[in-house]
Amino acid sequence: MLRGTGDCMPGNAPMLTILIDGIAYGMLLFVMASGLAVTLGLMNFVNLAHGAFAMIGGYVTALAVNRLGVPFVLTLPLAFLVSALVGVLAERTLYARLYRRSHLDQVLFSIALVFMAVAAADWSLGSSQMLISLPGWLQGRFEVAGVDIGRYRAFLIVVCAALVIGLQLVLTRTAFGARLRAAVDDQRAARGLGINVGGIFAATFAVGSGLAGLGGALGIEIMGLDPTFPLKIMVYVLIVVTIGGTATLTGPFLAALIIGTADVAGKYYIPELGAFLIYLLMIALLILRPQGLIAPAR
Amino acid sequence: MQRRSLLLGAVLAASTALAGMPALAAGGEPFKVGLILPMTGAFASTGRQIEAAAKLYIAQHGDEVAGRKIELIVKDDAGVADTTKRVAQELIVRDKVGVIAGFGLTPLAMATAPLATRAKVPAVVMAAATSSITEASPYVVRTSYTTPQVTSKIAEWAAQQGIKRAITVVSDYGPGIDAEKTFVASFGAAGGEVPQTLRVPLQNPDFSPFLQKVVDAKPDAIFVFVPSGVGAQFMKQFVERGLDKSGVKLLADGGITDDDILNGMGDPALAAITGFHYSAAHDSDANRAFVEAFQSANSGMRPNFMAVGGYDGMHAIYAALEKTGGDSEGDKLIGAMKGLSWESPRGPVSLDPETRDIVQNVYLRRVERRDDQLWNVEFETFEAVKDPGKTGS
Amino acid sequence: MTYTTLSPAGSAAPPETERRASRDLMRRVRWKPAEIVFWLVAAASFFLLPDRHLLLSEIVILGLFALSLDLIIGYAGVVSLGHGAFFGLGAYAAGLTSIHLTGEPLTGLAIGGLAAGLLGLLTGPLLLLRASDLTRLMVTLGIAMLLLEAANRAAWLTGGADGLQGVMIDPLFGRFEFDLFGTTAYAYCLVVTFVTFLIARRVVSSPYGLSLRAIRDNALRARSMGIPVGPRILGIYAFSALIAGLAGALLTQTTMFVSLDVLAFHRSADVLLVLVLGGVGYLYGGLVGALVFKLLQDWFSAITPEYWMFWMGLVLLVVVLIGRDRIDAAPRALLRRIRGEGRA
Known about the structure:
The complex is a heterotrimer of chains A (298), B (393) and C (344).
Chain A: H1 12-43, H2 50-67, H3 72-93, H4 103-125, E1 141-144, E2 147-150, H5 151-173, H6 175-185, H7 187-192, H8 197-223, H9 229-244, H10 250-269, H11 276-288
Antiparallel strand pairs in A: 1-2
Chain B: H1 2-20, H2 22-26, E1 31-37, H3 44-61, E2 64-65, E3 68-76, H4 81-93, E4 99-102, H5 106-119, E5 123-125, E6 140-142, H6 147-160, E7 166-171, H7 174-189, E8 197-200, H8 208-217, E9 221-225, H9 231-240, E10 249-253, H10 259-265, E11 272-276, H11 285-297, H12 305-323, H13 330-337, E12 341-344, E13 347-351, E14 358-370, E15 373-385, H14 388-391
Parallel strand pairs in B: 1-3, 1-4, 4-5, 5-6, 7-8, 7-9, 9-10, 10-11
Antiparallel strand pairs in B: 2-3, 11-14, 12-13, 13-14, 14-15
Chain C: H1 15-29, H2 33-48, H3 53-73, H4 84-100, H5 105-123, H6 133-153, H7 155-158, H8 183-205, H9 207-217, H10 219-224, H11 229-255, H12 265-278, H13 285-303, H14 308-322, H15 324-343
Helix pairs in contact in C: 2-8, 3-8, 3-11, 3-12, 3-13, 4-5, 4-6, 4-11, 5-11, 8-9, 8-11, 9-11, 12-13, 13-14
């Protein structure tokens, strides 16, 4: 039974509720940003179109839920797969041609892709907000030890935590992960060792795009979804990746958590700062640790 | 020598006279309407709705008024004010439009107002909602609504219902702050108290900290003003926190349950009581016909308040041109628009002759499910509301 | 480090090197025929295209803005996603000057440029962190976003989201009114841009400019040569900010309006896009890019107001895939073919 919020005692509980809200938001940001962190760190490719893959995943879920009646949770792997597929296709046909180009050319390229993606989404799905209805068991709140927790937020935390652990395991325990880390550290040496770097690029890009798509799907409830989503989300994702550094996955993870909680807590306790907080925080963190939270081991 | 200079003088005089009277020289010359809308970018849905409504009006009422053919030129400004101004200027100077219309946001209208004055071309505001727009130029006419018009009535109604303490939650930008100030003033005047005014950053994906404050403060009601796309997020998080069951009434500007997306919002929308000037469920024949025609012309897309602003804007243009007998001179058109009144799909409307702003009914509505669709159902009406932002609240 | 004079007396280098070095420098400073054609065409556009002056003004302003970005990206190697901050500050400074001080356009222009240049000086040191490109990029972005929020908060001063009302610009030199056709505006923008371009050209062809290029290519080596990297970067950054401020001021003065949009993120993103499109590092890239981008946008937008972005993206994609080198080489190759055939 859902206890009314009127029974809640202000004081401790709001702080923890806010904390959990912030953590959920941060983890969502991480899932979206992880793909970019890896492609940037591995392929040294500035992919500003990363948000477009998140948008694809979001729309896959929205369409599957609204038009096909697929249960929300089942659409999540679908969002991942479709975005991954689009990612692989794009990587093999377009991205691969630009690996040796300057960063500025890559910026131009990815912005061109975003333009096309935004207009295409607008044309096929309309410019209004795309909304979904969550299944009943994900709606509302429940109480744990006097703390009010949103069900969807808890779900987000669980799913994202599982993803993080999974990613970390793949990186550290599998052969693929070892090869990936080798390729990130020193591409030439890795190639010299016979590692199929091109294949790793493709696979990593696919997974990165897939994760972005999953993030987009999970984020519909919190951030909304419309054709301009890639542009809106790019700034946050870039902030996470820059603060966290591209050498590890832990860096962006911590960065996302810090940003998520600081943003939410800041608005609760110091609302006068409002939108200033996240940018001030970013600048401060970048001044303190210009190489990212977890700097590459040199 | 003398004859030639006389002839030259006569020709010059005649051409000057002709240049100064385009309507006479034209006779059957087309009357061009320059519709400048955000067709791309964050406010593209506004542009879509208004364009569809304008085209519907022309399709329904024919493209000829008082012997002049109506030509609609649609241009995108992507919601950027200097683009709006440049496009408007080009429309006036190159395409020689008789009227410019649209204006999806306040700064777009404000940037163009001086231009309208200078060129003596009427500017019909079909979307923007800040009071001061019509004061920026004597050639501006509005057919949308103003935020204070609607907010003041919501506040009045709230006080009538015995609501004593209300917190305002608005987006931290011009229109939001306007709404907050109007609510505080009107609610206060009616005997209510606003213990907290919360301002949410515009680029804000997450409302949870603000809703948490509402939970802490336990007011009788909250008044909300957020841009229309964001309303859905807000409603969901409001309901997710259990606030709808906690006895806190959710009062909002109607943009939160925008007809464009209302149907997709699901059950969380049922918690909202909104005040607004248009609902697609408005109970009148004119509206039913409008909604039906709009939906069949636009693949089932439901018209919203933007569409009705565009529809009525076209009506104002048509009616004014009819009144002046086809004379498209700016001053005459504005004179003809002042005091116009007609039955719009939203209800009876008129254009105030002193302020050139729209005078219309403001309705209080609840969201209800009918035929498996969500609609804003009106249950109370405030009639012929003028914009208090000018006449003082 | 003072550059050794070109006079043979008192120099340590052999005279042959001296001559080569001075010839090189002179070559940079000398005007190429293509450049003269470019500016002649620009001037001609004023007379030949009287009904497009409004669009042309917009192109020139964007081009000037992109030129300012080229100074730091192309010549100092610092990528910025926050240049819109200087553009916006210049725009607001000019607007506020016209309301509170004087409607005289040149004053507003100067104040706009100086305000932006000052901000550049103040925030420049942040760029000198030992950081990666990405970090500097985000810091510049952060500053621009902070300025946007500050302008939003200070609505009592800036007019907030509704925009600054009452910007009235007096006729230029007391005679040329800013007319409805945008003629005065275009001439004004064109002349300001040309003069600024001349100054910028002088700076980059000078030894100072060369030292910047050295810094861009390899900062460590430049430092070891004795070039004061920090102050040089700061200097060009402030100069670049000043020019961006001039562009912003021009926008306010020619449209007689300024709103929060001048500080929006898309300004910084668009100018970067335009510059990369036109080509970085030869000063004309910004102007060419602005011309191509705006003309394409205007053209596509007239055909399809809703979906022009798609076609724009497609064109940009094709341009990138083909590659600037091949596009640049095309006219040269064509000329060679024509000449070659003639010779053969």
